[in-house]
Amino acid sequence: MGKFDFDIPKDLTKMLSRMEQYDEIAPSVLNAASPIVEKAVKRGYQRHKRTGNLERSVKTKKPSKNSMGWMTVVRPTGKSDTYIGDDGVIRTRKESV
Fold first, then answer.
1. Distance CA 77, CA 97 (A)
2. Torsion of CA 25, 37, 39, 52, to 10 degrees
3. pLDDT tens across 22-53, in order?
4. Among positive and negative, which fits the CA dihedral 58, 61, 62, 67?
5. Which of 41, 66, 72, 96 could cross-link with 30 by S-S, CB 3.0 to 4.6 Å?
6. Helix H segments across 47-85?
7. What is the DSSP letter of 47?
8. What pTM does this model have?
């Protein structure tokens, strides 16, 4: 019968041992990265700024784990109390949307 022999690189072994700590590391990685993403999203909304409500409403959710792995969400939240009329004037809404 044939003989099969191989060596696992030490770097790969070290990386795999860190993967055992995935559930401990992932939330802190997401917490470190989310302010960068939030800042970029807000910067993207600055181009469309009239009232500033959309930009101010961008929030980051806490990291959570689901069936696909760890995740966090950066998105606009809340409701708007104002709107821009056809004439370009900012008005207060009767009800928040």
1. 11
2. -130
3. 888 889 989 999 999 999 999 998 877 777 88
4. negative
5. 72
6. 53-56
7. T
8. 0.69
